[in-house]
């Protein structure tokens, strides 16, 4: 996954509040255990025609759910259950809620200095004497308010049957502080289950100091109600100062993570919340064969996914 650290991310989406251009990376990674496709007709963001509304508008429109009836979430659950009951052997359906973290101090700094100066110089430092963005920055006040806007919408949707009970939903997130804070603020007292931290959901690693994670001990202390996956190392052994991760490798771990979720040892829940990052989600959506959809800070996109088994295990 070698890539010179001082080469710009292409495109430089990770630190942009906007999530960057509406384009997908070339899909390089072959399927491991499952192939994936998006089931359209449920959420306006999923196509088939490219649509991208401001997230404030998406919040007003029930996270983009096309069914606007009072029974909308019950209808979604019944429809997905029906598809699963009629599915051929080896086919699994799940609904993913992919939420990008709210604005972090690295996003604030990238706005302050501009994309090119950030990519050329500032991203490799830990701060500028006024702002600290590395390692592992926290949310800004704006980032917290973005996440709380999502919580407000979930509370409204819960009243009409949104699938957020412990029996219906499972929560996952990146190990970085900004995603942990976002998950807490996006769900609040509605967080019924135990969120699980996976390395495979983290942002591009290497080079940029904002993408170096805290130690396992620090994460456990900061988020004591979270569960950390088995094999998680104490120190960040993935981040290297002179080696920036590529799209190809992010696709590799995206495919691996989806194989885990949909596999025999994966979660039984149909509805999955994943709190993560823009560049990683850009590659994950490509692996899922979803149309390009840049996520702004704090934004969440629901995706109904059909997984078809193509191998018995992952080699």
TrEMBL record:
Q: Name one GO molecular function term.
A: phosphatase activity
Q: One GO cellular component term, please give it.
A: cytoplasm
Query: What residues form the membrane-spanning segments?
Result: none
Regions of compositional bias (Basic and acidic residues) in chain numbering: 1-11
The record, for InterPro entries, names: His_Pase_superF_clade-1 (IPR013078), His_PPase_superfam (IPR029033), PGM_Phosphatase (IPR050275)
Region: Disordered; residue ranges are: 1-24
Query: What's the protein name?
Result: Phosphoglycerate mutase
